[in-house]
UniProtKB/TrEMBL annotation:
Binding-site list for substrate: K45, N69, S70, M71, G72, L73, N128, N194, S195
Organism: Streptococcus iners subsp. hyiners
Keyword Oxidoreductase appears in the UniProt entry: yes
Its biological purpose: Catalyzes the conversion of dihydroorotate to orotate with fumarate as the electron acceptor.
Listed name of the protein: Dihydroorotate dehydrogenase
Gene: pyrD
Keywords: Cytoplasm, Flavoprotein, FMN, Oxidoreductase, Pyrimidine biosynthesis
EC number(s) from the headed UniProt entry: 1.3.-.-
Family label: Belongs to the dihydroorotate dehydrogenase family. Type 1 subfamily.
Assembly, per entry: Homodimer.
Cofactor binding note of this UniProt entry: Binds 1 FMN per subunit.
Amino acid sequence: MVSIATRLGGFSFDNCLMNAAGVWCMTKEELAAVKDSVAGTFVTKTATLDYRAGNPEPRYQNVPLGSINSMGLPNQGLAYYLDYLLELQETEPNRTFVLSLVGMSPDETHEILRRVEASDFNGLIELNLSCPNVPGKPQIAYDFETTETILHEVFSYFTKPLGIKLPPYFDIVHFDQAAAIFNKFPLKFVNCVNSIGNGLYIEDEQVVIKPKNGFGGIGGEYIKPTALANVHAFYQRLKPEIQIIGTGGVLTGRDAFEHILCGASMVQIGTTLQKEGLAAFERITEELQAIMAEKGYEKIEDFRGKLRYMD
Ligand code: RRO
């Protein structure tokens, strides 16, 4: 029997596949649909303190090799997602779900996290340090000083299981510097990667999304090599208590297999879920299990992180 069960942050999940934040997670109805699919869990759309309408449309476009988006952090506000998660704690006490969040300023991030800390929420929390699409706001995790300050402040009061969503890094020195910072904190996981920020896609001499004159985060097939590199770079550098979620370019079971081979304990599906719908979870689950069966692996720990190098 092949199992793709996993553990993350001390919790168990019967499937290591789930949605990536931003896809199928804006409303309770979408979240319930992911919950009731074969996915192991769900993560909410990144919540800010208050409702946000986000950027003007069109703000997401599927393209042949992936997607481009500049959504601008549209979401229902923290209370909406927190209320739903608390409701699920009553109705589905044996499952664990993930709340994604970030403030529009460090103060707002602390306000949100203090509310989560004070609540009865007992699941996982993902702090999004990598939104590329709010005009005038740089991706937090590209500023190492600010990132360290925020994490230092957060862990002075926050005691619940917390991980961070990271942008892709592109330089070995940046992997070293970022990992040295993350290793100072009791993080449960890092999630590699958010979309590759500020790409530009053109059709008929025109951009394909309206905000930011067409600049937007790139997802899908384009980004798998970058995602795998980030997963593996952090797997090599982080203390073992900090697990890795692999996100980026998962179209097939083979892609999920490669993320796990690079060290991922959980694998998230974004653009493919947007393009294909919930059936993607079943298909990719079956493809991943078939690859494992063929190779004689019974569980994901049999090959997780075991990427082979050349001599
Ligand atoms: O809402 C967005 O524009 C968005 C976010 Br918060 C994010 O983290 N990543 C992304 O590609 N889009």
